[in-house]
Amino acid sequence: MSHQETLAACGFAEAELTGGSLVVTSPIDGAEVARLAETAPGDMAGIIADAQAAFRQWREVPAPRRGELVRLLGEELRAAKDALGALVTLEAGKITSEGLGEVQEMIDICDFAVGLSRQLYGLTIASERPGHRMMETWHPMGPCGVISAFNFPVAVWSWNAALALVCGNPVIWKPSEKTPLTALATMKIMQRALDRFGDAPKGLVQVIIGGPALGEALVTSRDVPIISATGSTRMGRIVGPKVAERFGRSILELGGNNAMIVAPSADLDMAVRAIVFSAVGTCGQRCTSLRRLIVHESIRKDLVARLVKAYGSLPIGDPRQPGTLIGPLVDGPARDRMQAMLDRARAEGGTVHGGETAPGVTGGAYVTPAIVEMPGQTDTVREETFAPILYVMGYEDLTEAIAMQNDVPQGLSSCIFTLNLREAETFLSAVGSDCGIANVNIGPSGAEIGGAFGGEKETGGGRESGSDAWKGYMRRQTNTVNYSAQLPLAQGVRFDI
Ligand code: UN1
């Protein structure tokens, strides 16, 4: 499909795509595909006020009815899956099945949130006082600002929006400047769900298109109590303190530097498949991408040889073509950063396989993925580079391997390949991986929506998506009710008047 056909399939009219100041290009071929109108920073106050007004209505709608809106969104996403998936490919450069997979994540979280809308449970707690009942109630919080990155241009919004909406909160979305079209297309889908729903308040779901000034307005506004921000640790260092300064709540999903430990007992065929998918899938541009391989010395040479061979036959090119497994990096600067990091790794004693401009493809930033054998975990290895670079290091015993896995600033995802129960359980134990996600015989990427998603340390500590991540979008209220005719005080305090 041509870019124009892809845009038309998502319902864009010519006039929406021209005349604005935000230039959108496709990583596939570098072609300019749109010039979009940007939200004026001066409009932010009105946008936030609309969200606040919507909140005052939405918080009174019963949660299962709020779930109905998300159910309709899930239906509309199912109907639009192919079109939106193709637009993700156009705008973010993901291969077709990953573009579709991203929309599937949106559908999955809608299903999850619909069920959740009838399960926003609080606890009943034993009171120490006679004739008293204690309990916990979960209430809506208010508008939720979602700042998302280019690499999951629509799924990350849906993880936040589906939960926020059933929890009773309006959503204001600031997508990456690199991927505004997928955001606008998602809003068209959302609008169809809103139309079918009927009486949702205006301002319940909004999108703002533009640069940092808009994000700044969200982050600093006391009327936006929740900020969920996905992106680099550098971005999180700016956003986190600003939200904290006004005692807002932030949900931060920042950098990852995810490792796999490959133990001597590992099923190497499976490990090779897992490594290749998680290191080169999405051209190494997932926050869960595999970046570090910590391999037992007894199998290191063999595994590297198998990987170098597997890397040699990976189809690189136009992500729309069936069969392509590696599409482009998002842009030229991303390729320059990859090259700069490979140069640094060489200077630190690394041996680089691959990592060149991909032959025979033009237009976008197409690279061959790199495997870099490193003498140890150097400064370069400890930094996240958003590109398909896999650093390989050896280890002798598991304690050393776990220490190496943990000895980076980031703490998102991790995994071990082993058939040894002791090793697997140790890796998942309190003395094992320090990451938010730790897997056994599965790569670090491609998490399902049912689990809480997020990580520790410089990854930011936030949790989104499944499990009880919904609690991050509500305020907890502890209620104690006295149904006795006495007024006993807690802790046995006497205060007789
Ligand atoms: C991201 O890269 O920002 O686990 C999120 C995964 C996906 C989400 C990645 N479900 O790889």
TrEMBL record:
Domain Aldehyde dehydrogenase: 22-478
Documented EC number(s): 1.2.1.3
Superkingdom assignment: Bacteria
PROSITE patterns associated with the record: ALDEHYDE_DEHYDR_GLU
InterPro entries, sorted: Ald_DH/histidinol_DH (IPR016161), Ald_DH_C (IPR016163), Ald_DH_CS_GLU (IPR029510), Ald_DH_N (IPR016162), Aldehyde_DH_dom (IPR015590), ALDH7A1-like (IPR044638)
Location of the active site: 253
Keywords in alphabetical order: NAD, Oxidoreductase
UniProt keyword Chloroplast, yes or no: no
Family assignment from sequence similarity: Belongs to the aldehyde dehydrogenase family.
Subunit structure, interactors included: Homotetramer.
UniProt-recorded name of the protein: aldehyde dehydrogenase (NAD(+))
